[in-house]
Amino acid sequence: MILRFRDILLFWVLVWFGVSCKTESDPNPAAPAKVDTTTNKFPIISDEALLTLVQQQTFKYFWDFAHPVSGLARERNTSGDVVTSGGSGFGMMTIPIAVERKFITRAQGLERMQKIAGFLKSNTQKFHGAFPHWLNGATGAVVPFSEKDNGADLVETAFLVQGLLTARQYFNANTPAETALRADINAIWEGVEWDWFQKDKENVLYWHWSPNFGWEMNHQIRGWNECLITYALAASSPTHGISKAVYDNGWARSGDLKNGNSYYGINLPLGEAYGGPLFFSHYSFLGLNPTGLTDQYTDYFTQNKNHTLINYNYCIANPQGFEGYSDQCWGLTASDIPDGYNANSPTNDKGVITPTAALSAFPYTPAESMKALKFFYYKLGDKLWGEYGFHDAFSIDQFWFADSYLAIDQGPIVIMIENHRSGLPWNLFMSAPEVKIGLKKLGFSSPNIN
């Protein structure tokens, strides 16, 4: 249900903006175009140097291409003034990484965060403290995501707050500037009325509310998908917290989020058949550390690793026979496709590989993800690598390479590679005292919250 809902909305996103992509073909129509996957397009460098290069180049999307007024992340590279709440949260999480990797200075990172937090606090439209999916980056006014989605988006708000809390934990110096930044972030975070989104005190959270249409979209946030962070933050709120009953009855559906079947010999604890698109195992876990994280429903590292391995093995098996799929060229998740946008997965496969899928899985499948990274960079780099890192998606089968970049796809690459390398984003987010309290309230156990 959630995938269908998001697919419809994302289709209209592309109607709004248009997909910026390029299709390369052989000038001789009698000879089908082929992609050269045998020769290296760039000199070989060490694995560590390659990881750093990818992080630095991808970070530029959030640094160089950020909206000049607000500092927030544009939805995609053709979005103009339209910025994304969730993608901006991902962008904020890249700033501590960039400071520690010496892409920017701490002073530069602080200045950007001051701009962002100040704009979010004082200039943006909010609805019971929650943010819309899209904003005008110059004015802070809502840009409707669809006709009735012109108000609060609680999931996007959660992705935004995940980034804010990560930045708050990083900029922890006892100086006037960093103290003021933390105060601004706290004002935003504590202003979100998570419990109000229970709609008449139901034991479930609702995704949307509109000042014109109220609850008409009527979309409950239920698992398993990318939205676990919404319930984790709602439980963690010091001002508008939810109870464990909302998590158990709403998110977990009283246990109905469980799967338990095996695919390619790999057990999948939660979710739909074959696991769905890989962003399910990325967005909530940019900050939530799944290592050792358990509750009555599953071990979350096992869930995410197995989900990824099922996706990987599906691409190797390649039941539809798409050209190019292999143990080096894999990864299905939501992205641009030649004629629009699709939530790519083993059950919804259009022959399109999305680099963020494998690269944001580094903490779960480091060897498999490194093989994919080397293939994307060395073998396809002449077509896939650009100003802000890897372009959004490609299809060797259709000889198609997008020239688009999306904030929600670029951000997880930087963040999850760093979680693999140092654990910095995980350590920062999990150090927030409210998060520790909230996860315990929901019945989670973790070495990071004890």
UniProtKB/TrEMBL annotation:
<dbReference type="InterPro" id="IPR019282">
    <property type="entry name" value="Glycoamylase-like_cons_dom"/>
</dbReference>
<dbReference type="InterPro" id="IPR016883">
    <property type="entry name" value="UCP028431"/>
</dbReference>
<dbReference type="Pfam" id="PF10091">
    <property type="entry name" value="Glycoamylase"/>
</dbReference>
<protein>
    <recommendedName>
        <fullName>Glycoamylase-like domain-containing protein</fullName>
    </recommendedName>
</protein>
<feature type="domain" description="Glycoamylase-like">
    <location>
        <begin position="218"/>
        <end position="432"/>
    </location>
</feature>
